Amino acid sequence: MRAAVVTFPGSNCDRDLAVAMERVFGRPVRRLWHGETELPADLDLVGLPGGFTYGDYLRPGAIAARSPIVREIVRFARRGGLVLGICNGFQILTEAGLLPGALVRNRRLLFVCRSVRLRVETTDSPFTRAFPQGAEITVPVAHHDGNYLADAGTLARLEDEGRIAFRYLDNPNGSARDIAGILGEGRNVLGMMPHPERVCDPRLGGTDGVPLFRSLLEAVAGGGS
Amino acid sequence: MRARVEIRFRPGVLDPEAAAIARALGHLGFAGVRGVRRAKVLEIDLATEDADAARAEVERMCEVLLANPVIETYRIELLDRG
Amino acid sequence: MSEITPETVAAHGLTPEEHARIRAILGREPNLVELGIFSVMWSEHCSYKSSKVHLRRLPTEAPWVVCGPGENAGVVDIGEGLVAVFKMESHNHPSFIEPYQGAATGVGGILRDVFTMGARPVALLDALRFGDPAHPRTRHLLAGVVAGIGGYGNCVGVPTVGGETTFHRRYDGNILVNAMCVGIARRDRVFYARAAGVGNPVVYVGAKTGRDGIHGATMASAEFSEDAEAKRPTVQVGDPFTEKLLIEACLELMAQDCIVAIQDMGAAGLTSSSFEMAARGGTGIELDLDRVPLREEGMSPYEILLSESQERMLMVLREGREAEARRIFAKWELDFAVIGRVTDTGRLVVRHGGTVVADVPVAAVAEAAPVYDRPCTPPPRPVPVVCHDAAVPVTPEEALLGLVGAPDLASRRWIFQQYDWQVMADTVLGPGMADAAVVRVHGTDRALALTTDCTPRYCEADPFEGGKQAVAEAFRNLCAVGARPLAVTDCLNFGNPERPRIMGQFAAAVDGMAEACRALDFPVVSGNVSFYNETDGRAIPPTPQVGGLGLLEEVDRATGLAFDRPDLLLVLVGLGHGWLSCSLFLREILGREEGAPPPVDLALERRHGTFVREQIAKGRVRACHDLSDGGLAVALAEMCLASGIGARLVIPDGVPGRFGWLFGEDQGRYLLAVTPEDAPLLLAEARAAGVVARTVARTGGDALILGDGPPISLDELRARHEGFFARLMDE
Predict the structure, then answer these.
(1) pLDDT for A87-144, tens place per residue?
(2) What integer pLDDT is reported at residue C376 of this predicted model?
(3) C168 annotated active-site
(4) Largest Cα–Cα distance in chain C?
(5) Is ipTM strictly over 0.85?
(6) Which domain holds residue B62?
(7) Tens digits of per-residue pLDDT, C475-533?
(8) Would an 8 Å CB–CB cutoff place C419 in contact with chain A?
(9) What CA–CA distance (Å, rounded) separates C89 from C257?
């Protein structure tokens, strides 16, 4: 598994994501700077971490989505490369057009940091194949703008194509259809608001995030889902 | 010249902040408030004095960065240099 | 430049005597810029002129203290070549004026105090005091302060892991926002604010300078303005994004060998930062204000020197390393400007537009700074009030439900859910989970335990005992999670020091703290004093806020409130005498605010803390909680709520008063959950150590039962506990 995590100005879960990946993958994760104009040639997975890139100014993820490296990530994804966007990373992926819809202010307007229950809605993806079908997991959220919104046609298509990866069992932000995470058309891009990297270490209160990273390891080892 | 860009949610997109403002106005006794809509306004100073060029330039800015077409619409107004 | 009149002097908060002293130092009349410099350097905030004589009584040393008060933050050794760097600071007045920005910039400032020293900030805590929940402004202030703390801390990506929030009408006009930050650095890479090396460049980095918060001449400076339109915002606006970049850029630069000295531009901005660096280093500094990055046009030297724009730092670099440093700051898209040099003149010389606008001897300003031993009226020592069971019109169950739903004890979930307390992925015990927050030291098996404590009603009744108690409670909270208490930071919030009654409170609280710190080997390594917290002559209760830091050598031993199973025994450590005087029970249930607070026996405190810590280290303690507000019954209720498991409390025969036994606030006590197999060993070791301990309850079921009273279901308990904030903040 050759994985990398991108740091943008204002990313703040970059280290957390790299640590969790290294823990599960058992090998070092490369760190990339947002200004880089090329991705390493042999990469399997790129992670876009949580944080407040550019202070969430204009719209969360909007400015980061226009940085040089994101153009490369879009190309990488179109070639079938694996892309995982968590929290602000998910916001960047929607702003970059790699995932449909948008993430707007939480319904109750307040930042929310707490553990939420999620249901794994599909195991047919390189991100979720190691979960048991229909698994329910507990993963923390920590965001101000996690309210997923898309037009009716997009929502219907996400449902029909089985691209809703995770759904909230106790929706913390008002997301349409309780959506917590979605897959791109090729199923090789995942965006999710909850933070699986925060539940990969039993000392921090849980390991429900581990199967996500194990799924990726299996997918890469086995050559696709 | 200066351009004024107003960016607002598309009709139908729920804006909880605007809804909260409307509710707060109601609590303060403004019974006649039927709705509140929010917009953000950007004023951009441009080097060009050519109105058509300016509009085209700002149009592109909106498409590339300033507005997210999934949720937002925008309106551009050109102002004389303030 | 305008003439210096008595009015100008007064508008700068300087007395005629202080003005005379300035003339003596300079050998001439100061100009306006210089007057502004003296005004901030001799302000209470920068000079500690009213508190200095008292603060000297606080113990500041221990073998593990690397750096005590006087630098940007305190530094203590935490093993493995690492140090913890920490400090607490007040942002009271700005938060009352504009709660969001006031609190946010408070967090920003305290973060800078810590990373200035080369430490990566790893945790934030906030001690908040608000007015009566029913006061019309309270809700607005609470919402704004909490959002501001979250808005800043969440964005910079430093977890807000703990703190405290209480309410009292005496804070109606003066809320308190005390923010604490803790960072971790390599012991051999701590940076100080001592200018050195004649010719070394003085460098400005971070955000640009605007007219934010220019406080000198407090707005009398309108008359100095060329442009009548230029309204000076007094509220600084925080930019956590820039702060995040500043943290990363500074830490990146600190990993190189470029920096000689570094200091954040906090209150009084460029003036105090350059002055303090020069004063500590015994050097001079020359500044050229034309090179300062400005956000607004037409700023005067006075404004540039006194601006309190946020997210700025001043540093002295090694000569010849500017290019390297500039490259790092360019990478992070931050301003970088060489604005001066270190000199050997011992003077701060400031140029603007090619002319010298200020020329002041550095050492003289520091040495000649006024120090006041202000008159003190010693506070009266109150007597305890007695409360007989017969005088209580409610049942113990009703009293407990009332207390767990009271503003000062209700669940703080509404607050801490707005804080990202997990970012950095090292928070082992977060808000509401334990007596102290526990944060793993990244990459090690060690952890820091962190707490903030003060009980203002005790301090109001008896500042000496209250000061002692604040320190003892911090000590206790650290022991309760299994940590060895190392050191204290403080934030001493009081009224107007020119009033002997207030100064008497201050002196007594400091004495109480000093006695406790000495007895507990718990020195003060950093802190801050905030006076003048009063409106229309009505002062806040004395609030000597303490921030405690402790160390766990094995993170896996960190102990929280939650029992992990039924059929555990709860052992009460410490002896209760049913002390209801000055208790929360007396205030909330009987509406009486009176009497002496419970005294703290420091020898007992130390013995009990050591015992609890040892039992935790032996792995015998499954959950632990200290007894504080609301006594035994509330402590047990909180443990049940944290676990979702009930308990039955046995009230021993012959207890003189049931209410005193259940709700008394005798100090130095803990409740430990142990297995029935481990309990005899623990009790035997307690006896051997001279520690009073007895089994008082057993876990199990889904209700809390007090003696032979009716069960209180956990659902009902939870509904009461969660109800207060839900009612206050939701519409």
Answers:
(1) 999 999 999 999 999 999 999 999 999 999 999 999 999 999 999 999 999 999 999 9
(2) 96
(3) no
(4) 85
(5) yes
(6) 2-79
(7) 999 999 999 999 999 999 999 999 999 999 999 999 999 999 999 999 999 999 999 99
(8) yes
(9) 30
In C318-472, beta strands by DSSP E: 335-343, 347-352, 355-361, 427-429, 437-440, 447-453
| C-alpha closest to that of C712 among C275, C366, C399, C347 | C399
Question: Cβ(C498)–Cβ(C453) under 8 Å?
Answer: no
Task: Please report residues of C whose CB lies closer than 8 A to that of A112.
Answer: 417-418
**Residue C347: burial class (beta carbons within 10 Å; 0-12, 13-18, 19+):** buried
In the chain, the amino acid numbered C426 is D
Nearest chain B CA: its distance from A44 CA (Å): 29
Contact A58 B17 (CB under 8 A): no
Element (H, E) at C494: none
Q: What angle do CA C19, C23, C25 make, to 5 degrees?
A: 115
CATH classification of the domain holding A71:
3.40.50.880
Cα separation, C681 vs C698, whole angstroms: 17
Nearest by CB to B64, which of A66, A100, A108?
Answer: A66
Structural domains in chain B (count): 1
Contact check, Cβ <8 Å, A107/B16: yes
Q: Which residues of B touch A94 (CB under 8 A)?
A: 70
Which of C147, C244, C422 is opposite residue A142, by nearest beta carbon?
C422
Percent of the residues in chain C that have a pLDDT greater than 90, as a whole number: 85
Residues of A in contact with B69 (CB under 8 A): none
Active site residue C45: yes
Q: What is the pTM of this model?
A: 0.94
A–C: how many Cβ contacts below 8 A?
A: 84
CATH of the domain at B34: 3.30.1280.10
pLDDT averaged over every residue in chain C: 93
Q: Look at residues C257, C275, C248, C253 and name the one whose alpha carbon lies nearest to residue C325.
A: C253
User: What's chain B look like in SS3?
Assistant: CEEEEEEEECCCCCCHHHHHHHHHHHHCCCCCCCCCCCEEEEEEECCCCCHHHHHHHHHHHHHHHHCCCCCEEEEEEEECCC
CA dihedral A202, A207, A212, A213 (to 10 degrees): 10
Q: Using an 8 Å CB-CB cutoff, list chain B residues near A109.
A: 16-17, 20
Q: State phi, psi for C563 to the nearest 5 degrees.
A: -70, 150
Q: pLDDT-derived band of residue C226, with 50, 70 and 90 as boundaries? A: very low
How many domains are there within chain A? 1
Contact B71 A104 (CB under 8 A): yes
**Residues C349, C358 contacting (CB under 8 angstroms):** yes
* Residue C560 CB partners (closer than 8 Å, separation 6+): C429, C433, C434, C481, C623, C624, C642
The catalytically annotated residue of C19, C54, C91, C352 is C91
Of the partner residues A94, A149, A174, the one whose CB lies closest to the CB of residue B13? A149
Percent pLDDT > 70 in chain C is: 97
Q: How far apart are CA C647 and CA C379, in angstroms?
A: 42
Residues of A with catalytic annotation? 87, 195, 197
> Rounded mean pLDDT of chain A?
96
Among candidates A9, A19, A56 on the partner chain, residue whose Cβ is nearest the Cβ of C332: A9
Say if residues C177 and C110 touch (Cβ distance below 8 Å): no
Residue A150 and residue B13: Cβ atoms within 8 Å?
Answer: no
Name subunits touching C (3+ CB pairs < 8 A): A
- Give residues 20 to 79 of B whose Cβ lies within 8 Å of A: 20, 64-66, 68, 70-71
Does C67 touch chain A if contact means CB atoms closer than 8 Å? no
Beta strands in A8-154 (DSSP E): 30-33, 45-48, 82-86, 102-104, 112-120, 136-143, 147-149
Residues of A in contact with C440 (CB under 8 A): 203
Confidence of residue C219 (pLDDT cuts 50, 70, 90): very low
Q: Which domain holds residue A143?
A: 3-222
Q: φ, ψ for residue C610 (rounded to 5)?
A: -65, -45
